[in-house]
């Protein structure tokens, strides 16, 4: 039998590394010292024209939480509340896409000192549950509502104390606040 010689040519490709394969990076975030895995998400401004869009799209709340103004809801007072928000964005006149955003509480030492953290998590659903409050607003009105609590020109149906409770749990926007994404 012949001994096989190693092939010459380009080296074998290495397996692509995910963010979890990278070594942890120790740094100071908004909630104090913590361990973060992988690269930091790039910082970019809000997508699209904020003042020229009528209605909200499905990424509107998500954009507000990922890009400036960044909102924090990491307080022990959030532990007692369970809030649900429906985001019904209209894409043209063809269809309405429904998503639900749920406020979840968890304890995770990777994100800083062990304290309850709240995250607005988006997931698609087909369930039609009754809402305590319905808001109809433009993207500019949503940014104004979450940034300063201004309810000028916002069409509301239902229990208005829900939005007051949500705004009471939200800290003032901080453009330097870094979100830790999984």
What keyword list fits this structure?
Alkyl sulfatase C-terminal domain-containing protein, alpha+beta, Alkyl_sulf_C, 3-stranded antiparallel beta sheet, two-stranded antiparallel ribbon
Could you walk me through the main structural features you see in this protein, from its secondary elements to its overall organization?
The chain is of the alpha+beta class. It has a domain at 54-169: 2-Layer Sandwich (Nonspecific Lipid-transfer Protein, Chain A), CATH 3.30.1050. The chain contains 3 helices and 7 strands, in the order E-E-H-E-E-E-E-H-E-H. The chain has helices at 60-66, 139-148, 161-169, and strands at 24-29, 32-37, 84-91, 95-107, 116-124, 133-136, 155-158. The longest helix is centred in the last third of the chain and has 10 residues, at 139-148. It is elongated and about 80 Å long. The N and C termini lie far apart (52 Å). This is Alkyl sulfatase C-terminal domain-containing protein. Residues 1-117 are annotated as: Disordered. InterPro entries: Alkyl_sulf_C, SCP2_sterol-bd_dom_sf.
Shape: elongated
Name of the CATH class of the domain at 54-169:
Alpha Beta
How much is the average pLDDT?
Answer: 55
Structural class: alpha+beta
Main beta-sheet strand count, sense and barrel state: 3 strands, antiparallel
Instruction: Compute the CA-based radius of gyration.
Output: 22 Å
Number of helices: 3
- Low-confidence segments, ≥5 residues, pLDDT <50? 18-75, 90-118
CATH topology term of the domain at 54-169: Nonspecific Lipid-transfer Protein, Chain A
What's the N-to-C terminus distance?
52 Å
Helix content: 10-25%
The SSE order reads EEHEEEEHEH
| Widest sheet, order of strands | 3-4-5
CATH architecture of the domain at 54-169, please? 2-Layer Sandwich
Question: How many DSSP E strands?
Answer: 7
Protein name: Alkyl sulfatase C-terminal domain-containing protein
Pfam families: Alkyl_sulf_C (PF14864)
Region (Disordered): 1-117
Domain Alkyl sulfatase C-terminal: 119-182
């Amino acid at each position: 039998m012949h001994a096989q010689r190693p092939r010459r040519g380009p080296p074998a490709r290495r397996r692509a590394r995910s963010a979890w394969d990278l070594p942890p990076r120790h740094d100071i975030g908004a909630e104090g010292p913590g361990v973060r895995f992988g690269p930091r998400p790039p910082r970019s401004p809000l997508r699209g024209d904020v003042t020229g869009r009528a209605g909200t799209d499905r990424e509107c709340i998500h954009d507000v939480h990922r890009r400036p103004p960044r909102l924090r809801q990491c307080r022990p007072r959030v532990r007692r509340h369970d809030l649900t928000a429906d985001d019904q964005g209209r894409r043209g006149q063809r269809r309405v896409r429904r998503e639900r955003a749920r406020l979840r509480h968890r304890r995770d030492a990777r994100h800083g000192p062990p304290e309850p953290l709240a995250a607005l998590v988006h997931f698609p659903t087909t369930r039609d549950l009754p809402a305590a409050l319905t808001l109809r607003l433009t993207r500019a009105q949503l940014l104004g509502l979450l940034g300063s609590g201004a309810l000028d020109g916002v069409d509301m149906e239902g229990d208005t104390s829900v939005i007051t409770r949500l705004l009471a749990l939200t800290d003032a926007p901080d453009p330097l606040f870094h979100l830790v994404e999984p």
